[in-house]
Design a protein that fits this description.
The complex is a heterodimer of chains A (112) and B (113). Chain A has 112 residues and is mostly beta strands. In chain A, 0% of the residues lie in helices and 54% in strands. In chain A, the strands form 2 sheets. In chain A, strands 2, 4, 5, 6, 9, 10 and 11 form a 7-stranded mixed β-sheet that branches. In chain B, 0% of the residues lie in helices and 58% in strands. The chains are: A mainly beta (112), B mainly beta (113). The interface between A and B is medium-sized, with 26 and 25 residues.
């Protein structure tokens, strides 16, 4: 089985722009979670989706949003980018809500 | 809000020694506790996990213990090897207000040959 894939792998944006990141889970997995990873903060929970429904959202501003499609692929969007949004964004998929999460390679976002 | 504290932030051991990483969680509804290993430039990978109905689980040189009363769980690595050098993350998963997994801040483990 193919692993979790994320596109693009690298992004450079300027402040004020918006960005959309994509995550394709392992085939058959219905749960997708998103995390922001920074050197000082570890992995911070952004959202979790299951069967196209957002199950929970972390403590991030409304500029961060996401969605999940019927094929379980997920996107997250960050609007009005700030310098502090520079980070590695990881998604993870799991078969169901209490199964092992498999991480994708991440999208490294740099905001200038 | 929910929180997972992880200690120590850095751990240096001699090859062959044991390493212990400790985590404390705040959400009493947490019932699944995975541990991830992240090597430099790579994605986190699950190394072991434990569910709330189990007190201890072992897989070769790695073991995890869980004390639900104290809301405390630990990772034990025995006979450490240089390839164990990485960042280790603990996490706690609950369905409070919807499903989410909260990660600890990570422990950077150095195993000296």
């Amino acid at each position: 089985k193919a692993g979790v894939t994320q596109t693009p792998r690298y992004l450079i944006k300027t402040r004020g722009q918006q960005v959309t990141l994509s995550c394709s889970p392992i085939s058959g997995h219905r749960s997708v979670s998103w995390y922001q990873q920074t050197p000082g903060q570890g992995l911070q929970f952004l959202f979790e989706y299951f069967s196209e429904t957002q199950r929970n959202k972390g403590n991030f501003p409304g500029r961060f949003s996401g969605r999940q499609f019927s094929n379980s692929r997920s996107e997250m969007n960050v609007s009005t980018l700030e310098l502090g949004d520079s980070a590695l964004y990881l998604c993870a998929s799991s078969l169901a809500l209490y199964n092992e999460q498999f991480f994708g390679p991440g999208t490294r976002l740099t905001v200038l | 809000g929910e929180n997972v504290e992880q200690h120590p932030s850095t751990l240096s051991v001699q090859e062959g020694d044991s390493a212990v990483i400790k985590c404390t969680y705040s959400d009493s509804a947490s019932n699944y506790f995975p541990w991830y290993k992240q090597e430099l430039g790579k994605r986190p990978q699950l190394i072991i996990d434990i569910r709330s109905n189990v007190g201890e689980k072992k897989d070769q040189r790695i073991a995890v213990t869980l004390n639900k009363t104290a809301k405390h769980f630990s990772l034990h690595i025995t006979e450490t090897q240089p390839e164990d050098s990485a960042v280790y993350f603990c996490a706690a998963r609950s369905d409070t207000g919807g499903f989410k997994t909260i990660f600890g801040a990570g422990t950077r483990l150095f195993v000296k040959a």
